[in-house]
Amino acid sequence: ECPFCSRVEPTMAQIKQEYGNKVKIVWRNLPLPFHKKADLAAEASYEVYKQKGDAAFWQYHEKLFANQKSEDGLLRPGLEKYAQELGVDMAKFKAALDNRTHKDRVQADKDAAEKAGISGTPAFVINGYYLSGAQPFPSFKKLIDRALKEAGG
């Protein structure tokens, strides 16, 4: 639901294009309390990941952000529609949402953010360097290049 997270998506695509397999992007969820649809969307994303792996997770992620502004884009019917489009086992998907199977996983992400002092989104940690907000590509490039240099890559 976060408009700022959506705003940084093109920058993330640019990072993937520029750096390829030199960087690894790890997604963590931090549904903010005022984003009422975000918790279930995060849980749905984990179920897609569990069933179909990384590639499907990122495809689902893209669908969520592409549809986040539509009225029912992040409501249960939309979450199910996008999952079905990716060939997810819908019986398992629906059961996971009904049973809140991934609620603890989302909570673990929230807890990790709190422990790290992160309270807003988007937030990025690049080999220990913290970057807050939907920053432009040059801000990321500076930290990524520094981290790669320090890592010998």
What does this structure look like?
With 153 residues, this protein is mainly alpha-helical. Helices cover 62% and strands 5% of the residues. It contains six helices and two strands, in the order H-H-H-H-H-E-E-H. The longest helix is centred in the middle third of the chain and has 30 residues, at 38-67. It is globular. The protein starts with a helix and ends with a helix. The mean pLDDT is 94.
What is the strand and helix layout of this fold?
Blueprint: H1 3-19, H2 38-67, H3 76-85, H4 90-99, H5 103-115, E1 123-126, E2 129-132, H6 137-151
Antiparallel strand pairs: 1-2
Helix pairs in contact: 2-3, 2-4
In short, what is this structure?
The chain is mainly alpha-helical. The chain has helices spanning 3-19, 38-67, 76-85, 90-99, 103-115, 137-151; strands spanning 123-126, 129-132. The longest helix has 30 residues, at 38-67.
Any descriptors?
single chain; mainly alpha; two-stranded antiparallel sheet; about 60% helix
* Anisotropy-based shape: globular
Question: How would you classify the helix and strand content by structural class?
Answer: mainly alpha
Strand content: 5-15%
Cross-sheet strand order for the largest sheet: 1-2
Whole-angstrom Rg: 16 Å
Helices, by number, come to: 6
Helix content: 55-70%
Gap from first CA to last CA: 35 Å
